Write a sequence for this structure.
């Protein structure tokens, strides 16, 4: 009796052969139209006990080893990839396993999708063994994007249902810092401590740290001894210490488990959509040439394809909660980096994104970050710890961030660094995007942004009590922090901003009335130091939002290293928006003197402007209004 087999041939290109590795035989079917029929024995074979078979053994496939035109289906057995192979696609059924031979370097190339509903295992038994899955001859212009089901046009690695990835490369310290600056021509680097697993031949990335430099250098390790690393070529430029003695970041880009596209013109993607709880192992893996782009016919510009990212966890709910994906390197991406879209509880630790392109050409309300998820959708209880984003490929994108901090609750980012996001007016290391609802992130430990356009760029009108603390932003082209959009309740505190280009801090927001008196917009214990950059003003207040009854509070802040005035308030573009600004216990200049009216330059103030200053010892206070100028008032704080 014949039965219908549940396989949709419409997702296969005509001319391919479908090879089913099931039970003890091979079933080869030419791809045509409609469904195919199979004997009842085929269905029984799919329920057979899992057995181990070698890819190179014709008996595994019923007499013929799959070739370039074959789509391989693995069901009811474990297949060991014991030779390099090229196929037209792989489907691993729920009771099937594809395991790369652990004792050798193996490469599997595919011109079609690899769909995992069972298990894909890549675990080389030593650092000299390399396991590679490479998608070749992919046509990016054919991508459709969107949805939750594999599309033959959108070639990539699809992990579906109860599918499981077991990807474990050799341990390597992801990134660390030097003990000092690096001079031009240097071939030796002394690291803060000896890196684990670094080897001769590994590629390393050296962060840009000089003013006006936004491009990392990449070199190769020629020798290593303890914490001393020797490079194959001398450095082409200097990488000095930061203005506060911040050390230079160095990242290792090499991994021996690799998921790759072919090149910059033939990119693929990774898509994980588990419908049941699954425990993946994804550690020390390189993902390269992923994130396809195609021309948008409406504007003629290249854009990242919706939902086709280098590492995309798509609507997994809590099925991946508690998992840690670490030591992953995403490089040479055309479409963001990591995307955890409605996938709660994931930890990304010691991960790197280098040489990436943001998704869209427009910033407002778009998903555009190396670490991100879809704007206006919530992902919860994520931890991003000790990650690094290095260099965004210039593109016509208005606004993007290395780390784009989206909506949700219980999310934390710490000990992470971003540099090289500089080419557009609103590019930044860390971005709080325009979104609704706005997500409140834990942001209080060890985050650094240097050599970007903006260190932090906030563009939210939120009544929630956001706290940004213990941040360092230096040598960013425009500002260490740009605080917008128009009115919110953010608290910035215990932060150092040094040698940034135009301003240390650009305040483009006022307090939101609904924040209440306790949760006004506040800047507390912020060091704003122009340093050697000698920016015109430490603080710029301009292009701000609508008037508010709550003042913006600057408390215990330090202003120094500027060339003109500590504060510039410019109301030229805000005639109907009256700011209320309080400076309490401000310290000005190298000596830390009290702030005086002469330290504030005021241009075209709106009629309702109010600025107040209170001395460090609370002995006096002054108030400015356009009608009366500066007058003495009683202390108000």
């Amino acid at each position: 009796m014949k039965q219908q087999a549940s396989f949709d041939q419409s997702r296969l290109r005509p001319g391919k052969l479908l090879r089913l590795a099931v039970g003890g035989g091979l079933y080869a079917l030419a791809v045509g139209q409609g469904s195919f029929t199979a004997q009842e024995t085929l269905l029984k074979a799919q329920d057979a006990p899992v057995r181990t078979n070698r890819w190179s053994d014709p008996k595994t496939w019923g007499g013929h080893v799959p070739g370039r035109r074959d789509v391989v289906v693995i069901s009811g057995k474990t297949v060991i990839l014991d030779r390099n192979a090229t196929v037209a696609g792989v489907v691993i059924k729920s009771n099937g396993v594809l395991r790369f031979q652990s004792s050798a370097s193996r490469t599997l190339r595919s011109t079609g999708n690899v769909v995992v509903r069972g298990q894909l295992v890549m675990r080389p038994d030593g650092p000299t063994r390399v396991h590679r899955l490479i998608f070749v001859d992919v046509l990016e212009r054919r991508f459709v994007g969107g949805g939750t089901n594999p599309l033959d046009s959108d070639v990539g690695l699809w992990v579906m249902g109860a599918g499981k990835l077991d990807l474990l490369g050799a341990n390597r310290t992801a990134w660390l810092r030097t003990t000092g600056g690096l001079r031009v021509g240097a071939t030796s680097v002394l690291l803060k401590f000896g890196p684990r697993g670094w080897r001769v031949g590994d590629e390393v990335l050296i962060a840009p740290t000089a003013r006006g430099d936004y491009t990392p250098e990449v070199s190769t390790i020629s020798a290593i001894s303890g914490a001393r690393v020797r490079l194959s070529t001398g450095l082409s430029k200097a990488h000095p210490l930061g203005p506060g003695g911040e050390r230079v970041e160095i990242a290792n880009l090499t991994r021996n488990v690799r998921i790759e596209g072919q090149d910059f013109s033939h990119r693929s993607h990774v898509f994980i959509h588990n419908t049941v709880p699954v425990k993946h192992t994804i550690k020390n893996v390189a993902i390269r040439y992923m994130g396809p782009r195609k021309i948008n016919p409406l504007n003629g510009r290249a854009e990242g394809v919706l939902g086709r990212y280098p590492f995309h966890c798509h609507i997994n709910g809590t099925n991946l909660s508690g998992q840690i994906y670490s030591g992953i390197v995403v490089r040479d991406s055309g479409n963001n980096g990591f995307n955890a879209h409605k996938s709660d509880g994931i930890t990304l630790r010691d991960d790197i994104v280098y040489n990436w392109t943001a998704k869209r050409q427009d910033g407002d309300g778009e998903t555009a970050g190396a670490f991100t998820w879809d704007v206006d959708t919530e992902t919860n209880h994520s931890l991003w710890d000790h990650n690094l984003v290095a260099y965004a490929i210039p593109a016509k994108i208005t606004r993007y961030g290395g780390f784009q901090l989206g909506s949700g609750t219980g999310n934390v980012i710490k000990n992470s660094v971003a540099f090289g996001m500089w080419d557009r007016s609103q590019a930044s290391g860390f971005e709080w995007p325009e979104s609704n609802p706005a997500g409140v992130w834990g942001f209080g430990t060890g985050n650094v942004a240097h050599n970007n356009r903006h260190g932090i760029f906030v563009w939210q009108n939120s009544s929630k009590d956001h706290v940004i603390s213990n941040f360092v932003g230096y040598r960013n082209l425009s500002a260490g922090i740009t605080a917008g959009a128009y009115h919110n309740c953010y608290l910035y505190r215990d932060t150092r901003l040094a040698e940034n280009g135009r301003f240390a801090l650009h305040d483009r927001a006022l307090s939101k009335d609904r924040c209440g008196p306790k949760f006004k917009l506040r800047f507390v214990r912020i060091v704003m130091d122009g340093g050697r950059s000698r920016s015109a003003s430490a603080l710029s207040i301009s292009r701000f939002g609508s008037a508010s009854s709550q003042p913006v509070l600057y408390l215990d802040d330090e202003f120094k290293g500027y060339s003109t005035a500590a504060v510039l308030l410019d109301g030229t573009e805000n005639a109907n928006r009256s700011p209320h600004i309080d400076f309490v216990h401000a310290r000005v200049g190298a000596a830390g003197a009290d702030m005086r009216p002469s330290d504030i330059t005021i241009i075209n103030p709106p009629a309702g402007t109010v600025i107040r200053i209170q001395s460090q010892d609370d002995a006096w206070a002054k108030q400015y209004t356009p009608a009366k100028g500066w007058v003495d008032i009683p202390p108000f704080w």
Residues 40-45 form the longest helix (6 residues). Helices lie at 40-45.
